[in-house]
Write a structure and sequence with these properties.
By secondary structure, this protein is an all-alpha fold. The chain contains two helices and no strands.
């Protein structure tokens, strides 16, 4: 039963990590856009940083799920 739960955690974290990465890349593009207003660029840069932190958190959970599945 634990392996099934860990498999579910792995799949969920992998999907959430991919979503965070896509959002981060979009926000990075907005932050670099010289045609966007400065306030929008600053907000997008902050969002990209938050997305990177989320992505890292999901990667840690994914790695720990893989470890638990191998036991």
């Amino acid at each position: 039963m634990d392996k099934l739960k860990n498999m579910g955690n792995y799949v969920s974290s992998k999907a959430q990590g991919a979503s965070s990465q896509a959002s981060k890349e979009t926000n990075k593009s907005i932050a670099k856009d010289s045609h966007a207003p400065l306030s929008t660029r600053i907000h997008a840069a902050g969002d990209a940083l938050g997305d990177k932190m989320d992505q890292h958190g999901h990667e840690v959970i994914t790695d720990s799920s893989i470890y638990l599945l191998s036991e």
